[in-house]
Predict the structure.
Amino acid sequence: MRREKYRCIVCGRVFPQGQGIIIKYQDMLLSFHSSKCASKFLRILLETTPYSDLGKHIKRIHEDLVEQLKMLDKKRAKKI
Ligand SMILES: [Zn+2]
């Protein structure tokens, strides 16, 4: 079976399926050969998108993740 190949949209490196990070977003395929390139994309996104557009979403996700961590800490504390 032939493996699909992807091209990193940040650095242009070609990598096989199963490696790297592939994110389907609407009709786009965001492909990154490494987490380093994915984080570069994230940084560009944060730096170039106005806070008025992105701020509330980032804030919500951040709050959700912090909340999840708190619950995880509680579970861990119970086990000890
Ligand atoms: Zn790359």
Summary: The CA atoms of residues 65 and 71 lie 10 Å apart. Residues 1-48 form one domain. The chain has a mean pLDDT of 94.
